């Protein structure tokens, strides 16, 4: 299993996404309809009018009977990827990766997985400077477009205002929305956007990124923290504050997960020091249910 650091050090998002995703393709089928798909399922007797190209001629030679090979094929859908590109995503973990670095790898891998399933994939990068949106498409050129948009994305400012995000919910389009965010917000702007998207598009998978040094509070001694979005600073002695911090963090995570699920989101917490497999497994599970 490739670690996020190994994938990041490839310095090639296309290659990293493919390497991270390929191990998860087998068995990732959204339905059990039978047809002319890629994965063999069963035989059935030939009937007049069937496509002769699907006949198993070797079986016919052995048995003097004609059978067609049926396969399990996917029911394609629309996958809409959302990247929170506010400044808090510049937080750097002890492994050297920022949350934005991890999000690029994760969304690249999910885009690759969805494309391999025949889905139409779109990407929206949410930043205060404006909405960067690639409409969902299922053509061969969409993946390079998504990779380029992710590679050139920068995390700046606050989470964008509702008027900036209005085009995302302007029309109804059935889709599986996958949002990658650290859920750092002034009020409830992220939750409000996802609530509107669930109403207009359907299923929402919320992947909550937290750096390992945030989760474990691995800091030592006197530390100065700076809010990446407001610029405010706080100086503390890490040791005496560790227990209280971790208690408050666990309570916040519990409430955050509870509220997200109450809103109907499929919520999952991700540690940016961990491989991408857990998030991809949840994506494929959610896709099968969509």
Could you walk me through the main structural features you see in this protein, from its secondary elements to its overall organization?
This is DUF58 domain-containing protein. The chain has about 290 residues and is α/β, with parallel strands linked by helices. It folds into two domains: about 5-25 and about 75-290, 3-Layer(aba) Sandwich (Rossmann fold); about 35-75, no CATH class. Helix content is about 40%, strand content about 25%. The chain has ten helices and eleven strands. The protein has helices spanning about 5-10, 15-20, 55-65, 100-115, 140-150, 160-165, 190-200, 210-215, 240-260, 275-290, and strands spanning about 35, 40-45, 65-75, 80-85, 120-125, 130-135, 175-180, 205-210, 220-225, 235, 265-270. The strands form three sheets. Strands 6-5-4-7-8-11 form a six-stranded mixed β-sheet, sandwiched between helices. α7 (about 190-200) links the parallel β7 and β8 (about 205-210). The protein is elongated, with a radius of gyration of 22 Å.
């Amino acid at each position: 299993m490739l670690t996020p650091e190994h994938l990041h050090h490839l310095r090639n998002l296309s290659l990293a996404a493919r390497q991270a995703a390929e191990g998860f393709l087998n068995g990732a089928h959204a339905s059990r309809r039978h047809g002319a798909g890629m994965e063999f399922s069963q035989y059935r007797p030939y009937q007049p009018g069937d496509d002769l190209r699907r006949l198993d001629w070797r079986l016919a030679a052995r048995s003097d009977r004609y059978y067609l090979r049926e396969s399990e094929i996917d029911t394609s859908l629309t996958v809409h990827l959302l990247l929170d590109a506010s400044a808090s995503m510049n937080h750097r973990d002890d492994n050297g990766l920022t949350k934005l670095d991890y999000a690029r790898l994760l969304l690249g891998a999910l885009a690759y997985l969805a494309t391999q399933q025949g889905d139409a994939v779109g990407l929206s990068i949410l930043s205060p400077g404006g909405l960067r949106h690639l409409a969902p498409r299922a053509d061969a050129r969409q993946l390079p477009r998504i990779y380029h948009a992710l590679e050139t994305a920068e995390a700046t400012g606050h989470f964008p205002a509702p008027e900036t995000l209005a085009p995302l919910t302007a029309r109804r389009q059935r889709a599986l929305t996958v949002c990658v965010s650290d859920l750092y917000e002034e009020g409830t702007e992220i939750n409000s956007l996802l609530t509107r998207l669930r109403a207009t598009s359907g299923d929402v998978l919320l992947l909550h990124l937290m750096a390992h040094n945030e989760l474990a509070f691995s800091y030592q001694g006197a530390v100065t923290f700076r809010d990446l979005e407001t610029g405010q600073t706080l100086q503390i002695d890490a040791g005496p504050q560790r227990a209280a911090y971790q208690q408050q963090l666990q309570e916040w995570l519990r409430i955050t997960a509870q509220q997200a699920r109450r809103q109907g989101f499929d919520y999952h917490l991700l540690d940016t020091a961990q491989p991408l497999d857990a998030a991809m497994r949840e994506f494929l599970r959610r896709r099968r249910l969509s």
